[in-house]
Amino acid sequence: MSTKTLVVVLAAGALVAACGGQIGQNNSSGGGQSSGAAPANKNLELVVGVKNEPFYISMQCGAETAATQAGYTITTQAPDKFDPTLQAPIVTALGAKKPAALLIAPTDDKTMAPQMKQIKDMGVKVIEVDTALQDTSVAASSISSDNTQGGQLAAQTMAKLTNGKSGSVLVLDTKAGTSTTAARAKGFEEELKKTPNLKSIGVQFTENEPSVAAQKVTAAISSTPDLIGVFATNLNTGEGAATGLRSAGKVGQVQLVGFDASPSEVEGLRTGAFQALIAQDPGMIGKTGVAQAIAAIEGKSVQRNISAPLVALTKDDMDSKAEFFYKTKC
Ligand code: T6T
């Protein structure tokens, strides 16, 4: 059994059989029995958070594989930036296309609600992949990593890495209103309280711009002489934080725990800019999203909340967990 299979089995009771199309049946909603007739509309749309980003490319690959296997088509669209003002018009325009289901990673947990509600009211099944709205009445199903647990895992990893030393820790979040990264930051800060020698200096936002993350790290190094660690809650934030440490000459002195596993982050882990990465399984999120969308379309049982696996990578074990590295093409 591969590491990934093992982690999936261990960490995601709910996810067990996404690949085989047998999603767990607990906590189901919006069900009903299948009429048996194949639906006329087999078109799915995936709207991700931002273009050309390995997390979403990996999700798209998983979704495309699952859709093809099931005899559905899927089209992916993305805004140029992780920005609800750019993502909202993409969703509105889908009203003219009327897919059978919309799989979406909303870029804001509140402001994306009106457009998503509108499309749902047209009869399109809405499935959240990765991020979610605060309003739980819109989506039939939400698939995401257990982000609170990911934040806790990052804090436990930071405690191990600093090995009893005292110091301050900076938390870098991406954009306010991102459900996933907010949960990671919160989980991290709560868990860090269990290690009294480590003190959080609070959460700062990077707007999902690596240059802002780099600047926040260099500023914290200047203003906080006992800075011992940085937790970067997503890919762009992590890549920028690594740049900040490199330009300040602090690689290896300030421990960097990142989230995600982009090629640049993986390379940073290998070369020592990161000491650990908390990797997600975006391919699995995409596959499971498609399975749930098809269940909703075909009137089968749908599971409202599904948790996807997470795994901590370090330099020592990364190569044995290479299946968690994100893709840049399918
Ligand atoms: O960390 C992922 C995703 O889970 C999060 O919701 C937004 O940022 C990423 O896409 C990585 O950039």
UniProtKB/TrEMBL annotation:
Q: Which UniProt keywords apply?
A: Signal
The UniProt entry's sequence similarity note says: Belongs to the bacterial solute-binding protein 2 family.
- Name of the protein: ABC transporter substrate-binding protein
Tell me which Pfam families the record gives. Answer: Peripla_BP_4 (PF13407)
Q: What phylogenetic lineage does the species belong to?
A: Bacteria, Bacillati, Actinomycetota, Actinomycetes, Pseudonocardiales
Instruction: State the signal peptide span.
Output: 1-17
The answer to whether keyword Signal applies is: yes
| Gene3D superfamilies given in the database record | 3.40.50.2300
InterPro entries, per this entry?
Answer: Peripla_BP_I, SBP_2_dom
Subcellular location as annotated: Cell envelope
The residues covered by the Periplasmic binding protein domain are: 46-300
